[in-house]
Write a structure and sequence with these properties.
three-stranded antiparallel sheet; 12 strands; Chitinase A, domain 3; 2 domains; 50% helix; single chain; 276 residues; alpha+beta
């Protein structure tokens, strides 16, 4: 839980309201945030919180996954800051945040897809930790129908066959309920978070690999979600991570980390990695 004096906590590390509000105030004075009657818009506060939560989480994430901010990266960011004529006029606390974020971005660029052994370890802890999800689902209209589907699956029925026969999602036909990414069995977690219902994502992120999960109620009906076992999707996990492994894995870390936000600013929703 977040203390009254904290703006947020990430895995036990906190940033106080005094520090956060001071940073927002400085940015407003610098014209980065518009104010109405002296107040910064909630959307800007939310965006700033999301940035600072990610910044606070980076140290633990980097240690876990092996991302390193080298002396060369620090020198490159420092040199770039010195060339920026406006940088010296920015308040010191804002400077520190900008430098930290730029160093992280450079470190992420050089990060490669982890070994299959590392990916398997992360996946076994929670598939979302890999920054990917490899899902199939069955969508029905009522909870009673969803319960009946779960019973079939518990009795050994094939998930794909039941999806073909029972799912009302048109895309299930011919795909066995698989939520594919072109030819890939897996999707980047961030893409799913942006494109799918938040209640669906809550079920998808919490699902254990190989275990049908549900019923999950959304605006579309009731879902049974299957997060596929690593042995069946490991090649796809590695493949979809290739484009930007650092950011993808960071999304996985934030999604599964223990994050709490002071209710003054909203509520953290880990399934979609943002504040509501």
């Amino acid at each position: 839980m977040t203390k009254a004096s904290d703006a947020f906590t990430v895995e036990g590390k906190s940033v106080t309201r005094e520090v956060f509000d001071g940073l927002v105030s400085e940015l407003a004075k610098a014209g980065q945030f518009k104010t109405t009657n002296g107040k910064v818009a909630q959307a800007d506060i939310t965006q700033m919180l999301n940035i600072m939560i990610r910044d606070t989480a980076f140290a633990d994430f980097a240690e876990t996954i092996g991302v390193e901010i080298t002396d060369a990266i620090r020198k490159e960011v420092a040199a770039s800051s010195e060339k920026d004529e406006q940088f010296s006029s920015i308040p010191e606390n804002v400077q520190k945040l900008i430098v930290s974020l730029n160093e992280q971005a450079l470190a992420m660029q050089s990060f490669k897809v982890p070994s299959m052994e590392t990916l398997e370890k992360l996946y076994s802890e929670a598939p979302a930790k890999t920054g990917t999800l490899c899902l199939s689902h069955i969508l029905v209209k009522t909870k009673a129908q969803a319960d009946a589907v779960l019973k079939e699956l518990d009795n050994g029925a094939s998930f794909a066959n039941v999806a073909e026969a029972k799912s009302i999602d048109p895309s299930a036909k011919g795909a066995g309920g698989a939520l594919k990414n072109g030819k890939e069995a897996c999707n980047l977690l961030a893409d799913l978070q942006q494109g799918f219902d938040k209640d669906f994502m809550a079920g998808a992120v919490s699902a254990k690999a190989g275990v049908p999960t549900g019923p999950i109620k959304t605006q579309f009906g009731y879902h049974i979600i299957l997060s596929h076992e690593f042995k069946d999707v490991k090649a796809s996990v590695a493949s979809v991570l290739k484009e930007n492994p650092g950011n993808a894995l960071m999304t996985g870390y934030i999604t599964t980390a223990k994050v709490s936000v002071n209710s003054t600013y909203g509520k953290w929703n880990g399934a979609i990695s943002t504040i509501e």
